[in-house]
Amino acid sequence: MNFETDLVAHLAGSLQGHLGSAPDVAVVLGSGWAERADTLLSGVERLPLSELEHWPLPKVEGHSPELRLGTVEGRRVLLCGGRVHSYEGWEACELVRGVRSIVKWGTSKILLLNAAGSLRENRPPGSLMPFADHINLGLPNPLASDQSEDGGAHFMDVVDLYEPAWRDALLASRPDLIPGVYAGLPGPSYETPAEVFRLQQMGADAVGMSTIPEALAAKSAGACVMALSMLTNYAAGIGGSRPSHTEVLETAIKHGSAAAEVLAATIQVAPR
Fold first, then answer.
1. What's the fold here for domain 3-268?
2. How large is the C-alpha radius of gyration of the chain?
3. Taking a C-beta distance cutoff of 8 angstroms, is the pair 186, 95 a contact?
4. Ranges of each domain in the chain
5. Sequence-distant (≥ 6) Cβ neighbours of residue 161 within 8 angstroms
6. Which of 31, 216, 249, 256 has the most Cβ atoms closer than 10 angstroms to its Cβ?
7. How far apart are CA 57 and CA 48, in angstroms?
């Protein structure tokens, strides 16, 4: 056992004490997702993150720092506000402490949401993109300090990091969605037009500043992982675009109803 492992176990116990048994699905909310996601829940219990000792608290607008537990179409679901980012100064283990605690609590399905910039003209703002894969270009890997039982580094197969069966089930119910590749950069500045051009050449379809560390940590802990981007803007240089966080939040509000429908469908088809 180490200090971080002890913290995760402690937080899992705190979640059990505050909220009871673990939910079927935990949803980590990204910028602009909280308000619409909340409309899906019935029988809501709320837990401010400030009541959970050692749970990192966010500093970015659009990330409400609380947990909300309820049901969606008969499934027990936890909405997790308060995502933290590496550009705020958090260490890798702190970025994923919440996700690891939720999996330790007993939740085996983790759905990660974010707001991202589109790298493709045929994916306009307001589009929803299920993850097919990712390219990590500087976000911290939380497995770097992990150790296996024999003391070796934690080398994990991530070919199917984003669960194909879950994604395929969503596409069967929502054939209008097109999966894509997400590029993760550390931020906090947006990408330059030259960087956007290079990302396009690499095969990325969207770019953002989160999600990848949580996906790696959840998979490592044994969870089934799915991720979904709301494309809130064109990346820099596409059609003269100059990204801003204000645009991200405004687009999320404008397209919130459509995003909520896709979120509900994604929860409904999560593996049993």
1. Rossmann fold (3.40.50)
2. 17
3. no
4. 3-268
5. 133, 134, 215, 216, 219, 225
6. 216
7. 10
